[in-house]
Amino acid sequence: MTRGSTLPAHRLPHLTGRLPIPAQTRTPPATPVDTFNTVPAEEALDSLLACLHSPCWARRVVDHRPYPTVDALLAASDEAAYDLTAADLAEALAAESLPALPADAYEAAHLALDAAHAAYEARFGHVFVICLDAVPPAEALDVVLESIRSRLTNDPEDERVVAAEELRRLARGRLTAHLRGAGL
Questions:
Q1: pLDDT tens for residues 137-159?
Q2: pLDDT at 157
Q3: What pLDDT sits at residue 59?
Q4: CA atoms within 13 A on the CB side of 156
Q5: Using alpha carbons only, what angle is made at residue 93 by residues 90 and 96, rounded to the nearest 5 degrees?
Q6: How far apart are CA 67 and CA 144, in angstroms?
Q7: Separation in Å, CA 117 to CA 29, 121, 132, 144, 178
């Protein structure tokens, strides 16, 4: 037994002179990476130089825009940091400041840290850099002092590699914070 349609076919009347209502579409808000991709190059460079003072690094990151995601931007930032020359590294290190001590650090800690920084700068010719992003604030002083003391035993080439890695981590953390704050 064959069964046919139970409903008759309906035909729509011809609607001349009438326009369909367009579908309502929302444009999603711009993400921080979208903003980074579209701001003028000079503005993007200035934002990046606040993360790491290396014009070569910043130019390389800006020149490869647009980035599809934050992860892609951070990967490009890392790659550009890995490619810093010795001169680029020296320029970036010259603009860095010493890690800040917690506000409640005692005077002896300031003296110990000042002495360790002086010894480090005398040995390597640049300020000590360290990324403390994953370190609880209460442990920062101990980590900085321990790191300076252990890194003072490095030969200059090994320390250049360690300092470059710390700069890369600092740049990544600063860029992430900048993106989170939609500063770009």
A1: 888 888 999 999 999 999 999 99
A2: 94
A3: 97
A4: 8
A5: 160
A6: 34
A7: 46, 6, 16, 10, 28
Q: Which tens digits make up the pLDDT trace of 99-127?
A: 777 667 778 887 888 899 999 999 999 99
Q: CB neighbours of 112 closer than 8 A, spacing ≥ 6?
A: 145
* Nearest-angstrom CA–CA distance, 46 and 152: 33
List the structure tokens of 136. Answer: 């609880």
Q: Choose which CATH entry (3.50.30.10, 3.30.70.270, 3.30.565.10, 1.10.3330.10) describes domain 32-180.
A: 1.10.3330.10
**C-alpha distances in angstroms, 41 versus 30, 31, 44?**
18, 17, 5
Are the C-beta atoms of residues 84 and 77 closer than 8 Å to each other? no
Cβ atoms of 48 and 82 within 8 Å: the answer is: no
CB 183, CB 43: distance < 8 Å: no
Structure tokens belonging to residue 127: 């300020």
Q: What are phi and psi of 133, to 5 degrees?
A: -55, -40
Q: For the beta carbon of residue 116, count every other beta carbon within 10 angstroms.
A: 19
Overall size of the chain counted in residues? 184
